[in-house]
Amino acid sequence: MAKDHVSGPEELESLIQEVLEAYPAKAQKKRAKHLSVTTATDEDPDPVTGIASKCDSTKSNIKSVPGVMTIRGCAYAGSKGVVWGPIKDMVHISHGPVGCGHYSWSQRRNLYTGTTGVDSFVTMQFTTDFQEKDIVFGGDKKLEKTIDEINELFPLANGVTVQSECPIGLIGDDIEAVAKKKNKDIGKTIVPVRCEGFRGVSQSLGHHIANDAIRDWVIEAPESEAKKSYEPGPYDVNIIGDYNIGGDAWASRMLLEEMGLNVIGCWSGDATLAEMERAPKAQLNLIHCYRSMNYICRYMEEKYNIGWMEYNFFGPTQIAASLRAIAAKFDESIQEKAEAVIAKYQPLVDSVLAKYKPRLEGKSVMLYVGGLRPRHVVTAYDDLGMVIAGTGYEFAHNDDYKRTGHYVKEGTLIYDDVTGYELEKFIEKIRPDLVGSGIKEKYPVQKMGIPFRQMHSWDYSGPYHGYDGFAIFARDMDMAINNPVWGLFDAPWETPAVAAE
Amino acid sequence: MPQSADKVLDHSKLFHEPEYKDMLANKKATYECGHTAETIHQIGDWTKSWEYREKNLAREAVTINPAKACQPVGAVFAAQGYEGTLPFVHGSQGCVAYYRSHLSRHFKEPSAAVSSSMTEDAAVFGGLTNMVEGLANSYALYKPKMIAVSTTCMAEVIGDDLNSFIIQAKEKGSVPEDFPVPFAHTPAFVGSHVDGYDNAQKGFLDLFWAGAERKAGESINIIPGFDGYAVANNREIKRMLDMMGVGFTILGDVSEVYDTPSDGTYRMYAGGTTLEDAKASINAKATISMQEWCSPKTMEVVEKVGQETAVFNYPMGVSATDSFLMKVSELTGKAIPDALKLERGRLVDAMADSQAYLHGKTFAIFGDPDFVLGMAKFVMEMGGEPSHCLATNGSKKWAKQMQAVLDASPFGAKAQVWAGKDLWHMRSLLATEPTDFLIGSSYGKYLERDTGIPLIRLTFPIFDRHHHHRFPTWGYQGGLTVLVKILDAIFLKADQDAGTLGETDMSFDLTR
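^ inputs. structure came back:
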């Protein structure tokens, strides 16, 4: 099918200009700083990907322009939805009006084991359901009572977090005082989190605030029995920044344990409070989602002298490189086992590539995800022979864009905090073979006749991490691209429109 | 190794493989510091006891698994029903991401809306600048015919005045002076999404009808209300009214925008009530609200301009459709055609064919106030017995109305009405006083899992089944959809109960 694709740096640059022209002057000036094409750099190529491009000129982590249809969420989404929500043995109260907790109820697919409503609470929606009188008179008393009622009705809950919604910070409630008081009363960990949705510019500040709350109200709290009783071992590690979406953290744990490491805590997918408390006893922090949890790693390094390293479990090339890099932090026995793990899974990798690569090779992909995946999943596509035409982040910071240069080649379109308008135009002109983004983007893209996968929720599939996950990833990309439905869009009795635009 | 390229296992099977089971068992035993299996079992049983139920029902502060959303999502939904209209929500931006996701997950369709993206500085200084810039940007980028403004709770708490902000934005040239920008204050801490729908609709009428002199005509207006089945239900209403030869305007019709074709073009706007029709709707003879609890304030406006009014409660089934059609006939003087009588007869025929399986079956029902009323009526009409009727966003007044509906039929004698209660309350009710079936939204699946009572998905949101909303639940045709869904659940249960080879399968009947 002949298509007039926009490609190559010059064409992409002029596409950016064309898209910007639709904005009023002030917004145009602001948005121009978020759109770019990666350029050449003198830096050495990344040892694993062999890539080096300059991708750090993009402005990021600044306020969204009003009225443009940003795809971003808020600090509450970053704290409750991402960092705290998956901790399964605590009750997370959406403190404020009913909506925030409702829309985020059971939507991030943080898999967990446990008996929901008895000892686990991830897929439940607890809210103080603010009414007008709570706004006028304050919600602290209601919060106190809420915690009491939770303690009575859910005696096996090991703690409570208070996830602040917008009004809390505006009406001057003192949730910290309530937390301290209730902690004394009931003897359980109570964590107040100031993640009101208007704070910061995206989910990102919510991650940071949530990390700080873990530091202040869990790690620096008096030592719990769970922590005291744990005897650390030489191979103890934490997985940090894996939310077990579709079971990602489990597919990752499998590999780490097979190479002889003990994953004593997973932050925060399928985690318990005890896993958070014991984290400082580990030898090493392994961080997957750098954007959402680097803060706590830096803190543990400073305070407990625990090293941390980033790794990438998307696609066999990065998995093998990560396993070796992790193993290098330990002794030879671990290194040998890591090699054995890589060898064990090589036949699976080979058969997955043999089956799917011929069906996917050369296909182009555009991504728009959160703060990690726009670069991290790139190599999984590389492994399948697919090409990244454009990528962008909802809430990355400069350090993320710097890292992106190790993943995407020169001449890749980069869009930060993309607007609905821009993304639609980019996709329309570039016409990639696949788009990976979120639920809000899924249906518009599919209507355009372009295959799509949700890359936040794995489109209700997953895991995508690890070797087991890579097989699923490859299968899903193949399903999306090679389904016959895309051939049915044109009615056969109509002359196909000329593709040229 | 469980995974292979030949048969790729995803999460639904992968984690049931022995390697993963062992790994998770070890994680639990070594690192989780959880409670013992015995304790979990014991507490689990306790949560299903009468003692627990009493404690649960005595809750005063915490809400758990509520079956309601907040106002602005209702306002966004209402706005999407007007031609070329862009919903613009003034306040924090995360809210809009949530509404759009929520609606897309149900309809499996795009959902367009923008935010004024207020942040900390706006919390201090107010959101006027955000409104001024936001309207200008929305207007330039998305070329709407109308921008419908509503608010998040942030803007409400700091007290932003939409009317004055919009006037100022127009003065500053964000949008042309004569460009329609209806607005509604939609505080999330008052009521629920049904009230947001009402406030938004009132906002539209306030704008469209302002200053206009009414010349009473013959047509009628229909206000559908917040309805997850709107795509098919609005079309069904249109079909029936066309059959009757009635002139009408649906105020807020999302049936096109939430059902656009896949043909290579993304349509951000599609169909919807034209602004012209909306303006002219003041001249209608009457306005019918299909959902009373979605429209109290809107209907006040209607009454004020002198139109006749009629309100229904999500009319489903034979008698409710009869009432609706007879009301239309009464208001317009148009007869109900034989073709509709034929459809009626077919629905009655189907119900008669299946009555033996329906009679005496008990149903717990939850959802929005109008849905629960309409559903309970239809259930009773089939010979079913409502047991628990629960609306988290139902008021005391609703409870009285609900009780009256139940009292009007011997099949309602066993029912209990639960206004303002949530789905964790429902769990206690079902655990202590079980029913044969549960009718509600996808959120009911947790109740199905916990109590073993089969869930029949018949109301918004339906996230985990596809395309249900493409079939109507209103009208005699819609009655068939609902009937079949209920019967499918009944027959599936019968097969499951008789499904064990050599043990229970003496009743595994081929013909029923």
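Chain A has a mean pLDDT of 96. The first strand of chain A starts at residue 35 and ends at 37.
thumbs up if we can close this ticket
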